[in-house]
Amino acid sequence: MTTLYESNETAWNLLSRGKVRDVYEYAPNQMLIVTSDRLSAFDVILPTPIPDKGVVLTQIANFWFQQTDSIIPNHLVDPDPFSTDAERKHLAGRSIVVHKAEALPVEAIVRGYLTGSGRKDYEKTGTVCGIELPEGLVEASRLPEPIYTPSTKAAIGDHDENVSFDKTVDLIGTELAEKVRDMALELYRFGAGYALERGIIIADTKFEFGILDGELILIDEAMTPDSSRFWPADGYEAGKSQPSYDKQYVRDYLETLDWDKTAPGPELPPEVAAKTSEKYLEAWRRLTKS
Predict the structure, then answer these.
(1) Alpha carbons 156 and 252: distance in angstroms, whole number
(2) Which residues, 6 or more positions from 266, have their beta carbon under 8 angstroms from its beta carbon?
(3) Can you state the angle between helices 53-68 and 174-196, rounded to 10 degrees?
(4) CATH number of this structure's domain 102-245
C-alpha cells in the first residue's frame, strides 16, 4: 500500500509499519513515529485516508502524555520535531521522537462502560473477561467501577486476544503485571474524569507500556479516538448505542455493507471520510482547548 509519506521519507530506516503508525530509526536509542491518516476497522486497514487524522491523534496523545507524566513517565523526547523544518513540513504535527523502550506483550484495556465485545460477553456469561458484574446491565451501562481486561497484542491482520490477568502474570511476572494493571486503572480514572468535565465520556481505552532503564513507562498513544471509545456526554442514555467521536462511525457504516471483514477493505464514500474527520477534530477541540 502506498502511504502519504513514502515519496518523502528517505532519511531514516523504516523499522515497522503498523495499522496507523510508521516507526523509523531516528538516533541511537531513539525512534521517529509518524502517525498517518490510515484507518483500520475490524483489524483491516481501509484504503481511504481520513483527513487530518494523524495530526489529531498525535496532538491528543501528546496532550495526555503531558497531563499524566506526574503519574507515570512516558517515551516522549520531542513532541514536534519538524515544526520549524520547511523541508519536512508534511511531517509537522503528526511526528514525535521517542525513547526506544522494550514494549510489553500486553495491551492494558480498561472499561468503564458496558459496550462492544464486553457487552456480548456479559450477555452470554454475566461476566466480562471472567470478571463478574451485577445483573441487569444494558448497552452503555456505566460499570460500578472500571475494570481491567488485558489482551495480547496481535500482528497486523490478526485479532487481539482477550486474556486473563493470570495470563499476563505468566507473560511478564506478578509484580510487573500488577503494576501495569494498577497504572492503567489510575490513568483511566484520571483521563475519564478530565474528559467528562469537557463533555466527553471515555467508555473504554487501551494503554501500552514498556520498560526503559528498568522502569515502567507509557508508550505508543494514550486515550485517543483510535485507542478509545469517545461518547458525547450530553444526551448519554444507557440502553442504546451512543453517538461517538471515534471510528465507531466508520464501523457502523461498514456493518451496512456486504463485506466479510477481511482484507482488502472497501473504499469509504467521501462524505463518510469527511464526517469521520469532523468527529476526530471535535474530540481534539473539546479535550485540549480551554
Answers:
(1) 22
(2) 46, 47, 254, 257, 259
(3) 110
(4) 3.30.470.20
Return the SS3 of 117.
helix
Domain ranges of the chain: 13-99, 102-245
What is the number of other CB atoms lying within 10 angstroms of the CB of residue 89? Answer: 12
Is the CB of residue 185 less than 8 Å from the CB of residue 143? Answer: no
222 contacts 207 by C-beta, under 8 angstroms: yes
Longest CA pairwise span in the chain (Å):
59
Question: What top-level class would CATH report for the domain 13-99?
Answer: alpha beta
Cβ contact 98:214 at 8 Å: no
pLDDT tens readout for residues 32-80? 999 999 999 988 999 999 999 999 999 999 999 999 999 999 999 999 9
What does the pLDDT look like over 254-274, one tens digit per residue? 999 999 999 999 999 999 999
